[in-house]
Amino acid sequence: MKGSEKIKHLYWRAGFGLTPREWETRRHWTVERAVDELFDRASQASALQLDGLTENRSVEELKKLRGKKLDQAKNEGKLQIVELNNGWIKRMVDSRESALLERLCLFWHGHFACELKTPKPALAHLNMLRQHALGNFRDFVKAVARDVAMIRYLNNQQNRKSRPNENFARELLELFTIGRGNYTEKDIKEVARAFTGWSSDARGEYVFRSRQHDYGVKTVFDQSGKFDGDEIVDLILRQKATARFVCYKVYRYFVNERVEERIVEELADDFYASDYDLAGLFRRVFTSDWFYAPANVGTKIKSPIDLMVGMMRSLDVQFGNPKSISFAQRILGQVLFRPPNVAGWPRGKNWIDNATLLLRLNLAESLYNEAEVSFQVKDLKATSASRRLRKMEARTDFQPLVDLYGRGTETEIFTALKDYFLVGSAAIQAQQLAPYVLHDRTENYLKSVTLRLLSLPEYQLC
Question: Which 3 state secondary structure label does DSSP give 207?
């Protein structure tokens, strides 16, 4: 594979693609230089901010509200969740931000899946993912166990020594760390006891309620002791199966759904030996020859977030309505902060069905119209009002593409755009699109070819 194709592959898997100007600048870089740049930017990224949080009211204060004041407080919270959602998407799109860190946060948001309903815990959860995304997995899991959004989502505030709640313990073992087949139902019960008293207070802060904690002896993985939650995490990570489980998920997400078991075992060996260093794990993935093998390029179906953010980066899409970004996520089937369940979002062909495929193929054309575009919301639980056609405003900017490629022949323009937008060995030729594009002016040809390329099934892959 030539160097520019490797760069394109890297930035789609470790980010969300490149803007036109980034592509022209970086397509000639070496993989080593590009990976260094990705990691350097990630180390300098700042936390997300959300001004004017209303979620500082205590639960008791909210319970005292009635009528319009209560409705107003709820609406403020919903609007701030929309604002936070928009802020994260804009970071994914912004070429000045760390593409790698945003990609990793999206990955970990699916791994440590958690529905985020209120602004303060949502912001704290997202910044917790950002803080640990390239850190130590041991510290990461311990931070997740103290995360207020996760505690509330998995009902650990109800986990008391007199009546243990097993929800968090079960998902900790099954989905977050060691995976099925490596623990028993008895282990779940004992782990739950270790996390009794790990709770949150009325203002959305983590608190350890010592009177609710079970200080007795627990037996997990045939080892006994008066374990608390941190010691349980240490015990889980002492099992080599945990390193393999994490590497397996990393490989499926970043490399290929079809797993090469030998490579996963090698990754797990190094990950375990490094005491769960995530930066080392991801750097090895992105610098390995097998990551760039033809069998791993252009084989991943873009998630709705990948698809939308990639188009926004390429066409500098700006939405006129603040709710349009979250609405676009909804119609495509992936809304940040709202995973379908604790297992996170599905992958691969699960993103495509008869309804969403047509929306995906027509998305670029719809965004280009610069007018309000109507979509049919697919939501079986929606009210009759929300099932009606909704409108979304968007503006696109083709000028960077025109500046870069608008002076060549039609053949040169087509080749340049195909090289930029499509990954792998897409077989589409200029003559195949000729009947469906405009030939009156160079700029119109460029725009129409771009829209046709973005509507191809090949563009659904990265």
Answer: strand
Closest CA to 422 of 366, 460, 384: 460
Task: Write phi, then psi, for 277 (nearest 5 degrees).
Answer: -85, 110
Of the candidates 447, 427, 429, the one whose C-alpha atom is nearest the C-alpha of residue 438 is 447
What DSSP state is assigned to residue 146?
T
The span from the CA of 313 to the CA of 76, in Å, is 30
Least confident interval from 10-19, 353-362, 390-399: 390-399
Angstrom distance (rounded) from CA 331 to CA 59: 33
Token duo for residue 438? 């405009």
Contact by Cβ (8 Å): 235, 211: no
- The pLDDT score that the predictor gives to residue 407 is 92
Structure tokens at 124: 């704290």
Cβ distance 282 to 250 under 8 Å?
yes
pLDDT band at 62 (very low <50, low <70, confident <90, very high): low
Q: Distance (Å, rounded) from C-alpha 408 to C-alpha 445?
A: 11
Which long-range contacts (C-beta less than 8 Å, at least 24 apart) are formed by 61-70? Answer: none
Instruction: Tell me: pLDDT of 57 over 80.
Output: no
| Residue-wise pLDDT tens digits, 434-451 | 999 999 999 999 999 999
Closest CA to 92 of 81, 78, 77, 107: 107
Other CB atoms within 10 Å distance of the CB of residue 36: 14
Q: Using CA atoms, how far apart are residues 27 and 432, in angstroms rounded to an integer?
A: 26
Q: Which are the contacts of 433, defined by CB distance < 8 A and separation ≥ 6? A: 414, 449, 452, 453
Cα separation, 348 vs 327, in Å, equals 22
305 Cβ contact partners less than 8 Å away, ≥ 6 residues apart? 89, 92, 106, 329, 334, 336
Q: Which amino acid is at 146?
A: R
E strand or H helix at 360: helix 354-368
Query: Strand (E) positions, 240-310?
Result: none
Give residue limits of the domains in the chain.
304-460
User: How far apart (Å, rounded) are the C-alpha atoms in residues 104 and 85?
Assistant: 16
Q: How many helices (DSSP H) and strands (DSSP E) are in the chain?
A: 22, 8
pTM (2 d.p.) = 0.94
- Residue (of 376, 336, 283, 369) closest to 92 by Cα position: 336
Round to the nearest angstrom and report the end-to-end CA distance of the chain: 15
